[in-house]
Amino acid sequence: MSKLWGGRFSKKTHALVESLSHSIGFDADLAGYDCIGSLKHIDVLKKAKLLKTGEHQKLSAGLKRILKTIENGTFKPNMRFEDIHSYIQHLLESDKKVGKTALKLHTCRSRNDQVVFDTKLYCLSHILTTERALMALLQALTQLAKKNKDLVMPGYTHLQHAMPVAVKDVLMAYAVMLQRDEVRLLNAYNGIELTLGSGAVAGTMIPASHYKLPAKDGLPKAVSAPENSIAAVADRDFVVETLSALAIIGMHLSRFCEDMILWASTEFHFINIDDAFCTGSSLMPQKKNPDVLELVRGSAGRLYGNLVNVLVMLKGLPLSYNRDMQHDKEPLFDSFKTVQESLTVLAAMLPHVVFQKKRLAEAVKDECLYATDMADYLVKNGVPFKTAHTLVGKLIQLKLSSETDIVAMSDAQLKKIHPLLTQRIVKTIIDPIRSVASKRSVKS
Q: Which pLDDT score is estimated for 167?
């Protein structure tokens, strides 16, 4: 297979080295972005008078023919080549309409610069794809919250009953997380600067002004010469920042799935998940397992691993480019795929989640959920909070030790706790709708 290098070498590359160094098995995903980068590169070469008009036209037409096969799905990379850049070069050299002009494509260019540019284009495209999937899930979550806006459920701290909360508020807590995720994604997007002209490390003989290209014809952003060519080819911060944003999305999705798994369990039975999004058991006929939620929850660890993988790979590298950096792509590509699949399947599942109203109504009958409301009542009537906290604690202790509901206690029993407590008052306080409505500190 032809390579982009080799003149200095007297021996063929050892087969084991070929096997170790080949990256076309995964960097083929960069093919389209590589063609776009090459089209921009030949524009620069033409401006620098290193390509004649006819040569530019031949290269442009040849690259566009390759790009068309990528876009229509007929592009089939040859896995025997070292990388996707070498293969596209080979295709141009094999194109009779391009001929020997293809040999000029790599003028003033290094794969060190080329691969950074391609990967940045990949990130820009897939960040936007991920953001759209995130917004679709956010919409589905918001619709589910609106659909169940009148329902109340137990709120939890330490996975123990805490206070009554609106179902919509629980769901919208995750919506807020997704909104923060969108900001992180867009920050990663905005932080990516497209540069050409770094060469291998020191820059090229072409003036910096020639590398100024507008955002059009496949470019989501304008291109410029690098501020520092050494930093440009060594840069993988944008990969780390993107992987970090994707890992945090994975964390949020995992937490959401954990709640949904609990809610779907027999013990909670707060929700029912549509059969189409569940699986069964090969042994137990009765089982309905929330496998989708478990798989999404499990993928968070994979996303964390991808982030740590790249961080550790980069941590000891000297300037500027090192072949270790080839290992940034598989984690990056995998994280995008994992997050996009997770967002898409959850957005499809949520419209078919049904909250079990009777079970929720039963769950919020737990009188302990209203302990803080009773303390608040005493505070509003002049009792110091610490005193109120202690008194209501004693009331709960009495309820548990006597196995008597608070609403069933006599006025005499209640007044022993505090004179302000009566059967009528506690029945008024122990009301889920009233409890939720009494919280006024949150923006409506």
A: 98
pLDDT of residue 153: 98
Ordered domains of the chain (ranges, CATH): 15-107 (1.10.275.10), 112-359 (1.20.200.10), 365-437 (1.10.40.30)
Q: Measured between alpha carbons, how far is 186 from 178 in angstroms, rounded to an integer?
A: 12
Q: With the C-alpha atoms ordered 286, 291, 293, 297, is the resulting torsion angle positive or negative? A: positive
145: left (phi over 0), alpha (psi -120 to 50) or beta: alpha
For residues 101 and 56, give the distance between their C-alpha atoms in angstroms, rounded to a whole number.
Answer: 9
Pick from 340, 184, 337: nearest CA to 253: 340
For the question of whether the overall pTM of this predicted structure is more than 0.90, the answer is yes
Phi, psi of 58 (to 5 degrees): -65, -45
Q: What is the pLDDT of residue 7?
A: 65
Q: Which residues participate in catalysis according to the annotation?
A: 158, 281
What residues pair up with 160 in beta bridges, in sequence order? 157
Using alpha carbons, select from 261, 253, 263 the residue that is nearest to residue 154: 263
Identify the pLDDT of residue 6: 62
Interior CA angle at 87 toward 85 and 90, to 5°? 115
Say how far apart CA 353 and CA 347 lie, in whole Å: 11
Q: Cα separation of 155 and 366, whole Å?
A: 11
Between vectors from CA 30 to CA 24 and to CA 31, what angle results, nearest 5°? 85
Query: Which portions of the chain are predicted below pLDDT 50?
Result: none
Angle at 234 between CA 16 and CA 103, to 5 degrees: 65
